[in-house]
## 1
Amino acid sequence: MEDIIISVLQRTMIAGTPLLLATVGEIICERSGILNLGVEGVMSVGAVVAFIVTFLTGQPWLGVAAAMIAGMLISLIHAFASVTLQANQVVSGLALTMLGLGLSGMLGKPFIGKPLAIKMNSLALPFLSDIPYAGKIFFNQSPFFYLAIILALISWFFLERTRFGIKVRSTGENPGATETHGVNVSFIRYICILIGGGFSALAGAHLSISYSKSWIEGMTAGRGWIAIALTIFALWNPGKAIFASFLFGGIFVLQYLLQPLGISPNFLAMLPYATTLIVLLFISFKDPRKLNAPASLGEPYKRGER
Amino acid sequence: MFKIKINDRENITKTRSLMTNIFSLGAGLVAIGFLFLACKVNPFFAISAIFADSFGTLYGLKETITKAIPLILIGTGLTFAFRAKFWNIGAEGQLLMGALFGTWTALTFGESLPGFIIIPMMFIAGFIGGSICGIIPAILKIKYSINEVISTLMLNYICAEFITMLIVGPWKGSERFGFPGTNNLPASAILNVIPESRIHYATLFITIVFAAILCVIVYKTKFGYEVRVVGENPDAGKYAGINFFRTTVLVMMISGGAAGLAGVGEIAGIHHYLGYPASISSGYGFTAIIVAWLAKLNPLYAIVSGIFFAGILVGGDAIQISLGLPAATVQIVNGILLFFLIMGDFFLKNKLRIQTRIQGIQ
């Protein structure tokens, strides 16, 4: 029993990692006022690029770097459309998802079903991994797990405690007023979209070179969309995103846990999506003023118009 | 030194709007050409092959019309939802629910009823199925302010898993020899097609009528006016006492219902049984988003843009086989075209002038 609980929690952490990375990326992006619905597509591109580069070079970290660059490059299209051309962010994000899913399907076609010779090994932290229970659950994990936690904490610090973070947040609240204080709103938004894209791609890389060690089309399975919902659930706070993501990681693991009980696997596969709706329903009972949603989220900013 | 000056364009004429769309699509095709070049495929050959295979041959044209039926039906429904600024991304799930309700009706009552009774029953059931799936996110948005993009998408996944659960489990047909899927619909429930094609003309007729009715609703009725106000100026709508709940629910009932009708058409006209979700719809719910956008949210224009994107689906399938391109090519083409369309909107709404510094001072 003890072993089962430890293994479940361990897998919860692994399953929650891509959600955390993508959620934090989306939080940074949305905090600057830009809604990015392209997470699913960028994640997919990250997954395929990380897989291909790792497969060809045998260097997982090179794969990770390549995935992040690819994620940023493709997000640049959304940045150009939504910031420079003031396009509708919902439609632009959807286009990004279509493009990303399509590109990843195209690039990954020759690699479907090929196993990865070298994968990202889990990393046991010295001393910490010897702690009973917690050591196995938290400190003997994929490097992506540590990376996700560290990036979430850094992002929290960066958003809440630095000058640049204030600029990002005020850009998301009131871009007009922010611009009068000499902040380049477009520049801030570009940077935040690129960071968000890099994080989403990192989440994808985790899926293909650490979580499953292979590439299959559609392997992101809606995680990008769930991340967008988690952004709301976490009240746009990277710290709370840690809690939210691992809660959902647990729901992904629950699917496999309940399968031996004879419940239809397709019914269980609905769980993460249904839970997303339920969680959003709970959030809606909160006072909307306490939700913390960036005031200008999704609205294109036109310079000189107040 | 020069500077680009951006000004609002005051009057946007229909011609300019049309030309902008055509230019955007053209620019998008150029970008796609570069992509083909990167795949070591001659871009001129590939792009002309897309259109030659979909519009240039009789067989291709028939297939294009076959695929245009669900695209137009869903696309017109989406123009309505998007007009109310309700981002319905769940047409895929609504289509599936329509297919499910239609199949159930046919399998339950079809044996004993003649075609002219069972077929209308199936379409009504499909409309109800799609509507239910559309109304849920509408209620969630107005009553609980849940973002409709997320709720409609989550429902897509839930509907797909639900159908898979049924066809591998309780609904698995005895005629399928253990493979997933329901039994074939009874003969009376199957739609006639135009000979030597797959065009199920009953659905085509419904599609055209639906687009026309929606056009009248949007431009000629009080309800249509309310829908436009809800989308364009919600604050004014609130002051004017428009019931947002009623409007949104009705809009999504129609939009979801349209996708449900398309689902029935696919089952009764083409597949003749309920199989895996991915085989029922090849992403029509998502492609229809671009159809609606290219149509500038006008239901009648959606007929034209629906045929255009059906052509891209058919031509894309054809060049996949002849040029050995991956199946995802069509998705990339769609994504790029959608990007160029929204980028084109910028040049439609704004006037750009390149100013030299000296002129600027004067």
Note: The radius of gyration of chain A is 19 Å.
## 2
Amino acid sequence: MKPFTRWLASVAGAAALGLGGAAQAEKEPIKFALLQDFTAVYTFVTNEYHQGQRDYLRFVNETGGVEGHMIETIVRDTANEPQRGLEAYNRARREGAVLVDFFSTPVSRAAVNRVLDDEVVMITALHGRGDASEGETFPFIFPMMATYWSQSTVLADYIDQHQGGLEGKRIALVHIDSPFGREPMPILKDLAEKKGFDLRAFAYPSPGTEQSATWSDVRRYRPDHVIIWGAGGGQQVSVREAIRNGIRQENILSVVWLAETDARNVGGNHLKGVKRFEAVGTGTDHAVIQDIMEHVIEPGHGQGSASNVGTTYYNIGVATMAVAVEAARLAMQEFGAPLTGEKLRDGFRMIENFDARGMMPPITITADDHQGGGYGRVSAWNGEAWEPLTDWYSAHQDIVWEEIEKDAAGFREGR
Amino acid sequence: MDIQFLLELMINGALTGLMYSLVALGIVLIYKSSGVPNLAQGAMVMIAAYLIWMFAHLMGVPIVFAILLAVVSMFLFGMVTERLLLRKMVGQPTIMVVMLTLGLESLLRGLGPGLLGASPKSLDLGLDMMPIIIGDVFINREYLVGGIIGGLMVAGALLFFRTRIGTKLRAVSDDHISSWSVGISVERAVAISWGLAGISAVAAGAMWGSVQGVDWTLTALLFPAVAVVILGGLDSIYGVFVAGLIVGILGSVIPGFVDPLVGGGTRDVVTSLIILLTIIFRPHGIFGREDIERV
């Protein structure tokens, strides 16, 4: 399918997934609303992410649905605008959506009170509020993967364990000048105090297309390690500027938003050795991806280009839906149909050691912990692919949870 | 004060500023002939970069020819835009024409990623990524090439306005009615200026696309380009060059020293202040004509 056609298909509105399972057509479908930014800020990731979600749901439907119920998606473009997102949400809710994924921090933040009031589950994997990990305050919101806070602790811990320790080191955090870019600051500050390293933050203006002045300053700081915290085109500019300013690739670590596209765009072999936080395994060598290949891609039912299958963002999309479907399955088994937001919430809270058949870290979600443990790993670009350097693990969750509880308390108190 | 740091900020800032001038030049070319401040110039830069990428990567054309094809395409695009959209606005209030260019910007911003995919694309011009190092001063090679091209484009535009067609454009920029009365086709002159703005967009798209990749964020170049044209003067090509240097240097040096103290974010403040202060204290800019109507 051509990109334009695919794009039109994506934003054209409600889309029933799959014709398979006609025998169960009489069973009421489960509706997931994927109200995402197809046309503005998150375009660097949305297409692949959304493609992974749709392909996985198609696979589920092709193989009998969830307890015989097909999953329907409601797809609309929010353009990363909270107003449009809320409008799309209201329509989706009226149409019976029990789960919503905005995949946009501004939109999902704007929708927090609505979904809590409406008792609709909102998943916020790798975006949104970090404090939504606290299930008591945010009962219907599920980050379900490592928050940015947890990502920063894993990266710092990697330096500590595998790159000669943190004590006495100079760590530069080079970030986009936005709330997202500043997100890891409090955690890294706490860690700097605890571990005895020097931390300095360097901000560059959004969208990160021009960072030369920032990196001139970074070079003079003579950092031992640089953590880059941006997304989209700004990330490749960061890597290029870092290398240009004499920082060795192996000493560059990134937030989760660094993918195959960035490797291509940085050019040559320049990204080789650069490390990143990884939330979900990449590549097609996973059982769940193989199933999608067999049941969806090879028969020609894929949502987009087959070349995207197995990329970082595609697999993250698959993982989000794998978790959501697992939650729906558990809820249906426990409470029966029809699936409501409340039942789905409880289904999420029943998830235990779920790893999408090895593609992601085993997550356990409880009534208290909606993050799922804060697991991830560090991988490096080896010139052709992202190669895992560690097992799945989490680090310094005590510090992360101090921050989560502090911010959640702030939300409760209206701060 | 670290002099070498200051020097590095100034040099790279000046080169960046000249790359902003590539975007600003298109705005000035159109304004000079038609009095229309084209707010779609950033989106035209993005479309130009997408075209180069499309010719080079999807059609396998060598990058030099891909750029040449983009030049032809964008020249035609500019002329067609003028013919289909702008000409219908003759006699309408300026604000309506400005709104039209804003609508065009929005349309193009969605169209490029919609047709060719939204993920960032790589545009490799074959430039060495490693900097030129003089003492402890690192000069960005891509910015150096971009700055030189920016300077050459400005010089080329100045020379163009001395040619026969250029003289007609100057006449049109002075007075449409007088130009009509002596037989100059104002419509054609305006269309040519849109075409030239398209060529300027190709130069900007190639250089900025090489630096940051090709995606919608190229449209954000409109903001610093607007600062350049307001400071330099909406109708001044000299102004594009000088103001480009000033905007680039101030936008590099001030954040370089102030950001570490305040936690970042001052470059856009600097750019905004340049726009505000210029409009308050010298609304026609450094080199602009005083009879220019405010928009």
Note: The domain at 3-146+282-375 of chain A is CATH 3.40.50.2300 (Rossmann fold).
